[in-house]
Design goal:
Layout lengths: L5 E7 L5 H9 L2 E8 L2 H14 L7 E5 L13 E9 H14 L6 E7 L2 H10 L3 E10 L2 E9 L19 H20 L1 H22 L1
Parallel strand pairs: 1-2, 1-4, 2-3, 4-5
Antiparallel strand pairs: 5-7, 6-7
Helix pairs in contact: 3-4, 5-6
The chain binds S-adenosylmethionine.
S-adenosylmethionine binds next to strand 2 and strand 4.
Length: 212
């Protein structure tokens, strides 16, 4: 999904670091910072990076820390990748990075586990615009890839918009799963969740209309 190379890329919650490593390999990042709270895993990652991506040829840094402690440097070309964590945590990270970078532009690539609706709300609230979005099918699970920027881009729809292809049965299956989930939550918290169900239903009508 990445459109351009960056001076600095942060692989947040990197775990084994495979995502960041794939970028080191493709020269999408001049420098890569791997961040995770797991001390043991970070030690292992550092030693495999030393072997496979020797410093001097590659530029990387391993940081054992909470993403919420990151003080965003004043660099114009930087990307934060947040993948494989839950929606609430992702929202927390978007908020803390945005507060830290009140005057600094940066891009963000998100692939959270569940909770994309609230992740999108948080991106909207923090002044992000959409660069690209995709529905990603991986090992029979479905995720949303959201690539956004504080610089410029399109308006972010909280249900997603350009990523949907109603002809694709996986997309329809994903839509049903989302609506089922929010309809269930609406039983206990109707004021919060019923409007979300309505938004997804309106989206479906619009997508069906496009097929005519
Ligand atoms: C499932 S892994 C995701 C790995 C990788 N990003 C991916 O998509 O394959 C989740 C990782 O998030 C890390 N993590 C959770 N909370 C964190 C935080 N507040 N700051 C940094 N890392 C965190 C965990 O230690 C774990 O390694």
């Amino acid at each position: 999904m990445l459109l351009k190379p960056y001076e600095l890329v942060w692989d947040c919650c990197c775990d084994h670091g495979l995502l960041g490593m794939s970028l080191l390999d493709t020269a999408h990042a001049r420098k890569l910072v791997f961040v995770d709270v797991l001390a043991n895993q970070m030690r292992k990652l550092e030693s495999s990076l030393r072997e496979d991506f020797p410093l001097g040829k590659y530029n990387w840094h391993v940081r054992c820390d909470d993403v919420r402690n990151i003080v965003v440097p004043k660099i114009n070309s930087q990307l934060f990748i947040i993948a494989g964590v839950g929606g609430d945590q992702t929202v927390d990270f978007i908020n803390s990075l945005s507060i830290s970078a009140a005057d600094t532009m940066f891009d963000i690539l998100i692939c959270s586990v569940h909770g994309s609706y609230f992740v999108r709300e948080s991106l909207i609230d923090n002044g992000f615009s959409l660069i690209d979005e995709k529905i990603i099918l991986d090992k029979n699970k479905i995720y949303e890839g959201i690539y956004a920027s504080r610089n410029s881009g399109k308006t972010i729809a909280n249900t997603g918009y350009s990523m949907w292809n109603w002809k694709d049965q996986d997309h329809r299956r994903y839509w049903s799963r989302l609506v089922g989930h929010y309809a269930q939550r609406a039983r206990n918290e109707p004021e919060k969740f019923r409007p979300i169900v309505e938004k997804y239903k309106a989206l479906k009508c619009e997508l069906l209309g496009q097929l005519k």
